[in-house]
Amino acid sequence: MHLDGSMADGGNGGDGRGVDVSAAWGRVKRRLRAELGEDVFASWFARLELEDVSGGVARLTVPTRFLKSWIESHYLDRVLTTFRAEAEGVGRIEVGVRGASAPARPAPTSGKPSPTSGPLTRLHATATQAALQGPGPMVETEIAAPRGEAGTVDLNGAPLDARLTFASFVVGRSNALAHAAAERIARNDGEGALYNPLYVHAGVGLGKTHLLHAAGHAAREAGRRVIYLTADRFMYGFVNALKTQSALAFKEKLRAIDLLILDDVQFIQGKSIQTEFGHTLNALIDSGRQVVVASDRPPTELETLDERVRSRLAGGLVVEIGNLDEGLRTSILSARLAAVRQSHPNFEVSPQVSSYVARAITANGRDLEGAVNRLLAHATLTGAPVTVETAESAIRDLVKNREPKRVKIEDIQKLVASRYNVSRSDILSERRTAAVVKPRQIAMYLSKVLTLRSLPEIGRRFGGRDHTTVLHAVRKIEKQIGEDAVLGDEVELLKRMLQD
Ligand SMILES: Nc1ncnc2c1ncn2[C@@H]1O[C@H](COP(=O)(O)OP(=O)(O)OP(=O)(O)O)[C@@H](O)[C@H]1O
């Protein structure tokens, strides 16, 4: 996320009128979810991100032009009203397409498209007209395929993000099957027909697009002709081909490839388009060419597609990428941190902070990436080391709000003991060696701050100690935390782990 002054200082710069904009944005999303319901929210808002707020304008982004167009035409007022209720200085909303102007990515001639390549609302009208008129004489079109540098039609020039490769894809339990299938297909070892089409589905940000791009890169490296398209680009290309009376050329171009990768297939809609999509699918699969499709839902739930297309999509291998477990989140996070450190060698994130982030951000890989960017922005802007506490405030809006958990003294003792390699009975014992005294005092301190138990009660639960012993421990740890940042971070992390 781009952090301008207003976000970096906690969002208090002018527009938010003293409101923490990141936090306000978190609340806006929660309200939209509550008011519109989970389905509508997941379809249209889950991938909406706040870039910055300045001059009274809140800049939001989405990954595709289709989402931009849909939100603009259906929900802009609603988002504005909701935003103003949380941060009244916001007077206008702008929606952009993420990555569209990023210099590292090639011009989006297919795949995730640019906001300047024409509003999609126009597409529906054109599609209907085209369907009524039927295709005319066939002429080569430039819209049908990505354009090469010289302006010629270049089907191999689809923009795959160079960062999204198999090498940077971390494999864990929840994505192992999808990964194995994608690799097989990219390798094209003759068993591909078993997985044709390969249909990968997953919730937002769990790595579908990453896997698709990785397969595209690998297949291309093996010399195969690959096209990567998002559903909206497919529709846009097809409708334009109809409009310029070059639909046959478009279809032939598509069918002359080895691997078609189609992302966000849930967005395919319109009768003539889905008929065409069905034909393309059949033609490719029947001639032994590979199709890989990704969606946010299983084929049976693609309500906008007719039954035949759905069953063709379900006829190969359907795999789901499940939620990222903590181990996978930790690995993805450390891979991201390592990647960032290549360009920012001084960017240090302690194991405590990493562990906190991997535990706190449970939703998806995109939020993990967002968290790394925020930690980097924090470190760069303040020059101060990132602590668990500063990390918490930097990523607050990415952390799912949960009811604070009731913490039990027994859990505190168990966790602290395991963290310091002693046993719980050591903590309750009379032993006075330093290796046991320190964790015991930390556990007493945490019992005081995380539970409502009185000092005498805590003393009783720590092997029948006097309340003055507990008070002494609490004061001592409080003082040490103030003086020793590493201990402060350690205790902060233990707190979060207990409250998770
Ligand atoms: N297994 C993984 N290994 C490495 N990075 C991952 C992994 N899973 C997700 N990510 C990262 O998380 C981010 C979001 O992933 P991606 O864009 O592929 O999600 P998606 O499933 O396509 O989501 P959406 O439906 O919103 O487009 C990317 O930065 C991606 O690199």
From TrEMBL:
Q: Which domain of life is it from?
A: Bacteria
Q: What InterPro entries does the annotation carry?
A: AAA+_ATPase, Chromosome_initiator_DnaA, Chromosome_initiator_DnaA-like, Chromosome_initiator_DnaA_CS, DnaA_C, DnaA_dom, DnaA_N_dom, DnaA_N_sf
Q: Where is the Chromosomal replication initiator DnaA C-terminal domain?
A: 408-477
Which compartment or compartments is the protein found in?
Cytoplasm
Give the UniProt keywords, A-Z. Answer: ATP-binding, Cytoplasm, DNA replication, DNA-binding, Lipid-binding, Nucleotide-binding
Provide the binding site for ATP: 205, 207-209
Q: Indicate the family of this protein.
A: Belongs to the DnaA family.
What is the stated purpose of this protein? Plays an essential role in the initiation and regulation of chromosomal replication. ATP-DnaA binds to the origin of replication (oriC) to initiate formation of the DNA replication initiation complex once per cell cycle. Binds the DnaA box (a 9 base pair repeat at the origin) and separates the double-stranded (ds)DNA. Forms a right-handed helical filament on oriC DNA; dsDNA binds to the exterior of the filament while single-stranded (ss)DNA is stabiized in the filament's interior.
Q: What is this protein called?
A: Chromosomal replication initiator protein DnaA
Q: Which organism is it from?
A: Methylorubrum salsuginis
- Encoded by which gene? dnaA
